[in-house]
Design brief:
The protein contains 5 helices and 8 strands; from the N terminus they run βββαβαββββααα. It is an alpha+beta fold and 191 residues long. The strands form 2 sheets. It has a 6-stranded antiparallel β-barrel with strand order 1-2-3-8-7-4. Strands 5-6 form a two-stranded antiparallel ribbon. It is globular. The structure holds flavin mononucleotide (FMN).
Length: 191
Amino acid sequence: MIIESIITTMDLDGVVNIAPMGVEWGDEVIVVKPFLETTTFRNLQAVGAGVVNLTDDILLFARAAISSPQYPTAPATVVRGVVLESACSWRELEVRSIDATPPRSRIETRVVHHGTRREFLGFNRARHAVLETAILSTRLHLIPRAEIEAELAKLQIIVNKTAGPREFEAMELLTDYIRASRAHPPQSPPA
Ligand SMILES: Cc1cc2nc3c(=O)[nH]c(=O)nc-3n(C[C@H](O)[C@H](O)[C@H](O)COP(=O)(O)O)c2cc1C
């Protein structure tokens, strides 16, 4: 099963990176699959450790999907890394093996420590809708524009029915980003 998480990693100078990633879940082994061009891949490869943060703060997913935000953190207990203060719980990971076959790596890690900060609230449809929108926002170059607009319209209805203020803010942030990217599409690389 894939669990959507926020991975915190550090580079060799101690600079923290925060990125949403779906990870293959296990109690003792967690597999992370970052694309090779991501900072998460470079940091996991260089440092050999990271932290999987589980959170119900969907605004954090939205911001981290489209930018490189900084958030309050505390040092991890066992590995070289940090835990997000807004995490409900976390797993500290040690890298065991890396398959760096392009385009997407497969990094097998061992869970060496875990902890809990606060309760994870139950299912909320708006949060899941924002999560899907966050994923869309990272795949704009792969999905036809009409399909993106159709998805957005469906997801917005769910948000309108079931969101609180943070979910509305997160959805607005992502839809603004997606619509702005239509006005200024990324340049295609030369053939
Ligand atoms: C919910 C969610 C799950 C994601 N899962 C992955 C993933 O498994 N691997 C990946 O490379 N990118 C994934 N992404 C996209 C990355 O978060 C995005 O490319 C990010 O910019 C990479 O950040 P980094 O370069 O700071 O590591 C996901 C995005 C979202 C919103």
